[in-house]
Each structure stands twice: as structure tokens, then as C-alpha cells.
């Protein structure tokens, strides 16, 4: 009995669309398989599984353990992942697979991939569409990496026809730069149409024929343009490209059917193989000076990647150019502080009139004031004019605000209190100390952080199995520091931290990045062990170092002294022992101005029983509590960890080797 309903034109349409979609997926899969077989053929671990047969589903089976994802990220942007952090065995358990996929997804964000609605479970289960999406983005990032003035200053030549200016070119996405480059050569070759996309405009293959004839006339075949069969023309185009040295990533049918992703990859391949641009000394010198002026610092790179990771509608390609109309900043503010943006008073790009840009940017400044950012001498016109110093200062406060709000939301017992930079540092010191180690930091500019050992001890304290101490160096030379720094970043991403710093940030002790790294680890710990973190890593008391002001000013770049005069509203000590005597409690304080307003001790003792010994010593002039020692984590600092005091040993203080 037939199950097809009569008059089902809509059903027929859906079936045809589904069939077309499946055809595209199969075609893209074949392309990615060829890419993997070429670039990972000599990989020490994966070569045992290669080459992959494109006619099978071996690609999806191989990708399930996460190793392939991590390896491809390092192909796209070498050095992104420390391969020592990848779990590589023939058979991985579910935990190890999840770790690899978590490392891969967080690293993908760090190279500019937009990872939205894709989780580790999707990849572990081998969901085809999700996997192909990940593979596609990585392939595009690899192929489009050089499509900017910094990497290819010769691109300034595409402006010769007076079509746009250099600021506009810097603000274009790599895909649009590729289209601009293609149209520049097509115009030189006499092609009359303008290519606006990578699908319908390329279906007949004529644009490819003209482009290749301009770039490599020595391989020109007159039949390419003479034939009336699009499939035959596409075949001749691919033959021409192969003679130029281009790898065959697609087949003639992909061109005829207008596969956007595969056509984009093919054009990018042609660009890499032979871009046909001039190396004129004067032009090149001017372009190099321009790229030096706009080269993003590490902080700027971090902000761009962080903003893109929020899932905003606008993708940021060039930080300083893309924020000038104010729209993308409003999108970020709406993510960080929902409801703060008045969209009725905002103008969406493209914006013709400059005063509309100023209006957008003025609203950005107004919201910054509402969030209590330090915005002295900052106006909307500073964003429009591209004042880099002020833009970076504002974005740091925005990123920090978001980070502290996330931490606050995770603290079940914060009671509305704000989390400060000093609180994060104190938490980290206590977390490390709770494992029996003595390494402590005084601030986020503490030079001892450059060795990386404190962060490795912190990571080990929140997840003991994640650090392999056999791989850790003493962090004395620059080479040892770099090895530790790269390992720290990959291990942090492996447990689930979304971070955007570079090894140099740790080696040079970039204070802002040290704060964000520590806060990310704290955030993960609060998500996975809230009870433990609430009790301050087993110290047995609740420490409320935060004030009621919102939000506090950042202390990065200043002395971390906010604890010295903080008021401690309450100190609760709970003992589960029903009958034993309450042991002595020593609380030492280096905070001369601190006041302890109340001290509550709860235990299930009989009401008449005395608590024998509670000694509190305080230098607080206003406190009337006799004998207290409050042990402030910032005042107990030891220069080295027990692991390296008398010869290095990978196993100490209960550390487990992974």
C-alpha cells in the first residue's frame, strides 16, 4: 500500500530538497576526506587510520574520539593545541573522548570559529551535519588565513580601479576580499559580469575559465570557453587548475550544482597557488606600513575572539574597523547585559549618515556609564574615529564585567554580593593551598606566574587527573616557560574553559589575561563543584570579601590591596561533630582596617556544653572579639612549590600521574 498522499506537491518538494541536501553532504564529505588524507598522511598517530575511503562512513567513526578534530585545528592554525594534552590511544573511554572534543571546540573558538549549538555529545555520537560543520569552518579558516593585508600586503593592488579605499578593504571579511580579488582579475581578463557569490554566479564555469586564463595562460585550453556543456567546461577548469598545482577538492558536478562551500574552498586554493598580484616596491611598502598600523595586539585579538564567541549576529573580522559604527558593540552589550540596549534608538548597518554612527556609539557610552565603567574622556566620537587605546580600554571593562557577572550567577550563596579581582586571587591561592602546596601569588602581576607552575597547580587542584606532571618543566628558561604555558592553555580548554590568551601572555604576565585565565578556571570549578568552592576549598568558613557596590573597579595594573580595608560581615563555622570538643580556631589577619561584625559558630552540641577553645587575634581597632587569627591567603606567600624544592619529582603531595 502506497504511503504517498495525493496532491502532495509540498511533500514532493521536501523530498527533493532533502535529496539535494544529502547530495551536498556526501560531496562535502568526500572533499574533507581528501583534505584529511593529504594533510594528515604523515601524522604519527592518525597515519595508522589513513587513507580514509570516501565511499564509507569511516570519517565519522574516526572523528568520534576527538583526536581528528584537534589535529585539524593545528593544521588550520599551527600551534593552537599542545598535542601533549590530547588523549591519544587506540581505544578511549567516554571521559577521554569528551575531553578531546571539549579541547577541540574551545580551541576552535580560539581560532575564530563560530561554534553555536554544537556540543561534545553531538561529536561523540558522530552526528554527520555537526561534524561536517566543524570540518568546514576549520578548512575555511586554513584556506582564508592569508586573505588580509597583514599576511598579503599585495592585496592593496585590487584597489587600483578606484573601487573602495584601504579602510574599506581592511573591514571586509576574508570571503568578500576573495570576491574582490576574483573580480579584479576577471575585469582584467575581459569578463563582463561581477561575481557576487560562490554558487549561482559560478555554475556555468565561465568565470573560472577567465580567471585561470589570466593567472596561468600557459595552461589555457580554447575548448574551455568554446564548449556549451557546463559539466565539460567544469572538467576542463579542474584540469587547468590541477596543472597549476591546485589540489582537487571538488568534482565537476560540485561546480555545476553550485556548492557554495566547495566553490569557496576552490577559489581560495587558486589564490594560494597563484594570486597574480604585483610585488611593486612602492605599493608593497605602503601596504606594509598600513598593516603595521592596524596589526592587532594580543589583547585586541582576545577581545575580537571573545566577542565572536558570544554568538552575536555580526561576525567581527577587523576589531577597530567593525566597532566604529557602534552596532556590533550594542549587540555585545545586549548579550552581556540583556535589556540594556534601546534598539528603537539604534541604526543597523549599512549606515549612510555619520551622525547615526555617533548616535549608536553614544548609546554604547551611556550603557557603559550605567554599568559603572570608568569612561573618563570617552565619547561616542572616539569609537567612530577608531581611537584604539580607548576602544581597548572599554572592551576590557566589558569583558571583565561579563566574567564577574557569570561568576556571581554561579555562586548560590553570594546573596547579591559582587565578586572582585582580589576575591578571585584569594580563591585561587586557597584552592592551591588546600592541596598541600605552598605556592601563592600576591597579585595578577606576580612575576612568578611566568613559570606557569601556579596555574598548573591550580588546574590540578580543581581536576587532579587533568595534569600530567611528567610533562611539566621547572619553568626556569624561556623554553621551559613556553612549554608550560602552551600546556596550561590546552589543559584549561580541555576541562572546559573558554579562553583566548596566548603562551606569551603567561610568559610576560599580562595582568588582564592572568585574571581572565584564573576566573575561567574558577568558573569551571563553581559549575562542577559548587559546594567545595563555597566553603573556600575546604577551609571551613565562608569568606565574604566583596562590597555592595556594583561593579567594583578593576584592580588590574594596580596593587591588589582591596582586602586591607574590606568589611567582613559574618563568619560562620559549622561543625558536624555531635559530641567532641570544638577544636581551636586560629584566624590571622593582615587587614588592619578590617572589622568583624559577627562570629557565628554552629554545632550539634548539647546546649549547656561549652566550647573550650576559640582564640581570635585581630589588629582591627573596632573589633571587640578577643583572640583571633584570620589567615589571609594574600599574606602567606612562599616562593616555590614543594615539587621543586629538593629535586623535581612528578609525584608529590598526592599528585596522580595521568
Automatic annotation (TrEMBL):
One of its GO terms (cellular component) is actin filament bundle. Residues 535-561, 609-658 are annotated as: Disordered. GO terms for biological process: actin filament bundle assembly; actin filament network formation. The keyword RNA-binding does not apply. Keywords: Actin-binding, Calcium, Cytoplasm, Cytoskeleton, Metal-binding, Repeat. InterPro entries: CH_dom, CH_dom_sf, Fimbrin/Plastin. PROSITE patterns: CH. Gene3D superfamilies: Calponin-like domain. GO terms for molecular function: actin filament binding; metal ion binding. Residues 26-143, 172-275, 297-403, 418-526 form the Calponin-homology (CH) domain. SMART domains: CH (SM00033). It is found in: Cytoplasm, Cytoskeleton. Transmembrane segments: none annotated. Residues 616-628 have a biased composition (Low complexity). Residues 540-553, 629-643 have a biased composition (Polar residues). Its main location: cytoplasm. The keyword Zinc does not apply. PANTHER family: FIMBRIN-1 (PTHR19961:SF62), FIMBRIN/PLASTIN (PTHR19961). Interacts with F-actin. This is Fimbrin-3. It comes from Hibiscus syriacus (Rose of Sharon).
Amino acid at each position: 500500500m502506497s504511503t504517498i498522499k495525493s496532491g502532495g506537491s509540498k511533500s514532493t518538494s521536501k523530498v527533493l530538497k532533502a535529496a539535494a541536501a544529502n547530495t551536498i553532504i556526501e560531496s562535502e564529505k568526500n572533499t574533507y576526506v581528501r583534505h584529511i588524507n593529504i594533510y594528515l598522511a604523515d601524522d604519527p598517530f592518525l597515519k595508522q587510520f589513513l587513507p580514509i575511503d570516501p565511499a564509507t562512513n569511516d570519517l565519522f567513526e574516526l572523528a568520534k574520539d576527538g583526536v581528528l578534530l584537534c589535529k585539524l585545528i593545528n593544521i588550520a592554525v599551527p600551534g593552537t593545541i599542545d598535542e601533549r594534552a590530547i588523549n591519544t590511544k587506540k581505544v578511549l573511554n567516554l571521559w577521554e573522548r569528551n575531553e578531546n572534543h571539549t579541547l577541540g571546540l574551545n580551541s576552535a573558538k580560539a581560532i575564530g570559529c563560530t561554534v553555536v549549538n554544537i556540543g561534545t555529545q553531538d561529536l561523540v555520537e558522530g552526528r554527520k551535519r555537526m561534524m561536517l560543520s566543524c570540518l568546514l569552518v576549520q578548512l575555511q579558516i586554513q584556506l582564508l588565513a592569508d586573505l588580509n593585508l597583514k599576511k598579503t600586503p599585495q592585496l592593496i593592488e585590487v584597489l587600483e580601479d578606484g573601487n573602495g579605499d584601504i579602510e574599506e578593504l581592511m573591514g571586509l571579511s576574508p570571503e568578500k576580499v576573495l570576491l574582490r580579488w576574483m573580480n579584479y582579475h576577471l575585469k582584467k581578463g575581459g569578463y563582463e559580469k561581477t561575481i557576487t557569490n560562490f554558487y549561482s554566479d559560478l555554475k556555468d564555469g565561465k568565470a573560472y575559465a577567465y580567471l585561470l586564463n589570466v593567472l596561468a595562460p600557459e595552461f589555457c585550453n580554447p575548448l574551455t570557453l568554446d564548449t556549451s556543456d557546463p559539466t565539460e567546461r567544469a572538467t576542463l577548469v579542474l584540469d587547468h587548475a590541477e596543472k597549476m598545482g591546485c589540489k582537487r577538492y571538488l568534482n565537476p558536478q560540485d561546480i555545476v550544482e553550485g556548492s557554495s562551500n566547495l566553490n569557496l574552498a576552490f577559489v581560495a586554493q587558486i589564490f594560494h597557488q597563484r594570486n597574480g598580484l604585483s610585488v611593486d616596491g612602492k605599493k608593497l611598502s605602503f601596504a606594509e606600513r598600513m598593516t603595521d598600523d592596524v596589526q592587532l595586539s594580543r589583547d585586541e585579538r582576545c577581545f575580537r575572539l571573545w566577542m565572536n564567541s558570544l554568538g552575536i549576529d555580526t561576525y567581527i573580522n577587523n576589531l577597530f574597523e567593525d566597532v566604529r559604527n557602534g552596532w556590533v558593540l550594542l549587540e555585545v552589550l545586549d548579550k552581556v547585559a540583556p535589556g540594556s540596549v534601546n534598539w528603537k534608538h539604534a541604526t543597523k548597518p549599512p549606515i549612510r549618515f555619520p551622525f547615526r554612527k555617533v548616535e549608536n556609539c553614544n548609546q554604547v557610552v551611556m550603557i557603559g556609564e550605567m554599568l559603572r565603567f570608568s569612561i573618563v574622556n570617552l565619547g561616542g566620537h572616539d569609537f567612530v574615529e577608531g581611537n584604539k587605546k580607548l576602544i581597548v580600554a572599554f572592551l576590557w571593562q566589558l569583558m571583565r564585567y561579563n566574567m564577574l557577572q557569570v561568576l556571581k550567577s554561579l555562586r548560590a550563596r553570594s546573596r547579591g554580593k559582587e565578586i572582585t579581582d582580589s576575591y578571585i586571587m584569594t580563591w585561587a591561592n586557597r584552592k592551591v593551598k588546600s592541596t598541600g602546596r605552598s605556592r601563592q601569588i600576591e597579585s595578577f602581576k606576580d612575576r612568578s606566574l611566568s613559570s606557569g607552575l601556579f596555574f598548573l597547580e591550580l588546574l590540578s587542584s580543581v581536576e587532579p587527573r587533568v595534569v600530567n606532571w611528567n610533562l611539566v618543566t621547572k619553568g626556569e628558561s624561556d623554553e621551559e616557560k613556553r612549554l608550560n604555558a602552551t600546556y596550561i592553555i590546552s589543559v584549561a580548554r580541555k576541562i572546559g574553559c573558554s579562553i583566548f590568551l596566548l603562551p606569551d601572555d603567561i610568559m610576560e604576565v599580562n595582568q588582564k589575561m592572568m585574571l581572565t585565565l584564573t576566573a575561567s578556571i574558577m568558573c569551571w570549578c563553581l559549575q562542577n563543584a559548587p559546594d567545595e568552592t563555597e566553603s573556600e576549598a575546604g577551609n571551613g568558613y565562608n569568606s565574604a570579601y566583596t562590597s555592595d557596590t556594583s561593579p567594583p573597579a578593576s584592580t588590574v595594573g594596580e596593587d591588589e590591596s582591596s582586602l586591607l580595608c574590606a568589611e567582613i560581615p559574618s563568619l560562620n563555622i559549622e561543625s558536624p561533630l555531635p559530641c567532641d570538643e570544638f577544636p581551636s580556631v586560629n584566624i590571622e589577619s593582615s587587614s588592619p582596617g578590617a572589622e568583624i561584625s559577627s562570629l557565628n559558630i554552629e554545632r550539634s552540641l548539647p546546649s549547656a556544653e561549652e566550647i573550650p577553645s576559640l582564640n581570635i587575634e585581630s589588629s582591627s581597632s573596632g573589633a571587640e572579639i578577643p583572640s583571633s587569627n584570620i589567615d589571609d591567603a594574600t599574606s602567606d606567600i612562599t616562593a616555590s612549590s614543594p615539587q621543586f624544592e629538593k629535586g623535581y619529582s612528578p609525584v608529590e603531595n598526592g599528585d596522580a600521574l595521568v
